[in-house]
Design brief:
By secondary structure, the chain is α+β, with helices and mostly antiparallel strands. The chain has 2 domains: 7-90 and 214-241, no CATH class; 95-204, Lambda Exonuclease, Chain A, CATH 3.90.320. Helix content is 46%, strand content 16%. The protein has helices at residues 7-27, 34-50, 52-55, 57-60, 69-88, 141-158, 185-204, 217-221, 230-236, and strands spanning 96-99, 102-108, 111-117, 119-122, 128-134, 166-172, 177-181. It has a 5-stranded mixed β-sheet. The chain has a two-stranded antiparallel sheet with strand order 2-3. The protein starts with 6 loop residues before the first helix and ends in a 14-residue tail after the last helix. Bound molecules: iron/sulfur cluster (SF4). Iron/sulfur cluster is lined by residues 213-215, 219-220, 223, 225-226, 229, 231-232.
Length: 250
């Protein structure tokens, strides 16, 4: 995990961390435990919050944040965990475990592609399930489909299986809903094309000077490079650094 996080990512990171830790207990033969998950994750939020001037990008950048933000974050994390253990986790009861949060890679032409699937399982009919937990509200599925098709491409090679046996499951912890996607050959062909095009484009640019920064207020606010970026700083006319204005939440 990155040493510095932005406000919007805290809920997602905490939810994922906690679910991964409970899956680890389950893999080792113990039962998942909501209370333990809640305690671990809220302790982590307290730890981040104590060091917020260096750990949270927006605060490190000098922006004021609304009071009670920490309590709001905690509220959503608890809600996410409740939804996960009540509605999402039971749907994997009969699945066989393969891995979780494991970094894997595969080669496509000369490119190395990395994937990290939140939860990888199979059912008794030989279907593979690549599951992803989303802590944001639906619908974010369209934005993530490329990522899911890359997972499917990896699974197809890694398990030497057919696309018909690969299912993508997206578990929305904010609501407890699950969506299932069955990637088609066309989806995979387009994904391969996209990987090829984007990798070629990135390989053309070797140095940081070849990338032109695209400033945008909401993006730059939570960017850890803001203090070093002239284009980003212009948006805020430097007034964010005149004084440190942290909230007083303890
Ligand atoms: S601060 Fe600079 S590098 Fe960061 S998002 Fe803005 S433009 Fe991009």
């Amino acid at each position: 995990m990155s040493n510095i996080v932005n406000l919007n990512s805290i809920i997602g990171i905490a939810t994922h961390k906690s679910i991964a830790s409970e899956i680890e207990h389950w893999v080792n033969g113990k039962k998942t435990n909501f209370k333990r998950a809640k305690k671990e994750t809220l302790d982590w939020v307290d730890m981040i919050w104590k060091k917020r001037e260096e750990k949270i990008v927006e605060i490190a950048n000098g922006f004021e944040i609304e009071k009670n933000y920490k309590n709001k974050i905690k509220h959503y994390i608890i809600k996410n965990l409740k939804n996960f253990f009540k509605s999402i986790w039971p749907q994997f009861r009969n699945h066989e475990y393969i891995s979780h949060e494991k970094l894997e890679s595969f080669e496509l032409e000369n490119y190395k592609i990395w994937v990290k699937v939140d939860f990888f399982t199979c059912d008794e009919s030989g279907n593979y399930f690549l599951s992803d937990w989303k802590s944001k509200k639906q619908p974010s599925i369209e934005i993530s489909t490329s990522q899911y098709y890359v997972y499917a491409l990896w699974c197809k090679n890694f398990k030497n299986t057919t696309l018909e046996n690969i299912k993508i499951r997206v578990g929305y912890t904010r609501t407890g809903d699950i969506s299932t996607i069955s990637p088609t050959s066309k989806d995979i062909r387009e994904t391969v094309k996209k990987i090829r095009t984007e990798c070629r484009q990135w390989r053309k640019s070797d140095t940081i000077e070849e990338y032109s920064p695209l400033s945008d207020e909401s993006k730059c606010k939570k960017c850890e490079y803001l203090r070093k970026c002239r284009k980003g700083l212009k948006l805020f006319k430097n007034d964010i650094f005149r004084s440190k204005r942290y909230d007083s939440d303890k």
